[in-house]
Amino acid sequence: MKISVVIPTHNEEKRIANCLEALEKNTRKPGEIILVDGGSEDQTVQKASSLGVKVINNPRQHAAAGRNIGIEAAEGEIIAFTDADCLPETTWIESIHQAFQDKALDGLGGRVEPADPENEYEAFWGMLSLRIIMSFGEEAYVVNRKTLNQGLITANCAYRKELLQKLKGFDEWFANHAEDIDLTWRALEYGARLTYVPSVRVKAHSPTSLEGIKEKSFRNGYASSKLRKRYGSFFNVDPAIYRELLKHMKGSLRGEQYANLYVLELLHFLKGKYYGSLKTGVINL
């Protein structure tokens, strides 16, 4: 069973070598590694090429297109996805291979843990995104509900190429905004058998600056509106977000740890939701 690893990139010179070296240290080697680059202006391509990785150009630049290009080029029966800022554990490929010995399995998602943080911004985002917004337990389960928490996120997932072809890959309308969640939900609608396998593990780096947190939060808000457009009702209001914002604004006045960052994150998340509402034609508040 050949496992192809697809990694979309754009200006990832800081992390890409560590990601590729982690794959090289795996107890079972991937059949191939395909890096699909969206026009990097730094040394991403040069670093990947020096490590013997196949590099393909992604003229549309966004992640959904990059992964689709990787799917088309991949020779493996199984296609595993991770990101350039992730560190797959040494048993990552072996665990994926073992899971797909079940011939009825169509796709899986694995456990994503925060990598060692570089600063307080990365520590905050790793805690928020991987332990609060998403949660990755130690027990395996069948993925059977269209919820955010059961989505197979592309930092750590794998599918049979046959299924990906039947689903026509990632929907490029989503671009960089919840394209992986959409793929999971479409796979479920198709009747695919998906599981969460906690032994398939990666560690993921997070934004290390305020600008990075703002960008990620905005993208998450925009993604919320895109998912609402495709799967939800025209009108949606989530009072919990505003309660959280008020709580952390009060916490900021009391000097609570990370309160200011929570406020910043929530404001930019809401900004993304409002922008996404205008762009997609829904009311998602």
Question: Can you describe this structure?
Answer:
It is a single chain. The mean pLDDT is 97. Helix 8 packs across helix 10 and helix 9 packs antiparallel against helix 10. The chain is globular, with a radius of gyration of 19 Å. Strand 1 (3-9), helix 1 and strand 2 form a beta-alpha-beta unit. The strands form two sheets. Strands 1, 2, 3, 4, 5, 6, 7, 8 and 9 form a nine-stranded mixed beta sheet that branches. It is an alpha/beta fold and 285 residues long. It has helices at residues 16-24, 44-50, 63-73, 92-99, 120-133, 161-166, 179-190, 210-231, 239-253, 259-280, and strands at residues 3-9, 32-37, 54-57, 78-81, 86-88, 107-114, 141-143, 157-160, 194-204, 235-236, 283-284.
In short:
This protein has helices at residues 16-24, 44-50, 63-73, 92-99, 120-133, 161-166, 179-190, 210-231, 239-253, 259-280, and strands at 3-9, 32-37, 54-57, 78-81, 86-88, 107-114, 141-143, 157-160, 194-204, 235-236, 283-284. Helix 8 packs across helix 10 and helix 9 packs antiparallel against helix 10 (259-280).
Task: Indicate the radius of gyration in whole angstroms.
Answer: 19 Å
The CATH level-2 architecture of the largest domain is identified as Alpha-Beta Complex
Helical fraction? 40-55%
Helix-strand pattern: EHEHEHEEHEHEEHHEHEHHE
Tell me the structural class.
Answer: alpha/beta
Strand content: 15-25%
**How many structurally independent domains?**
2
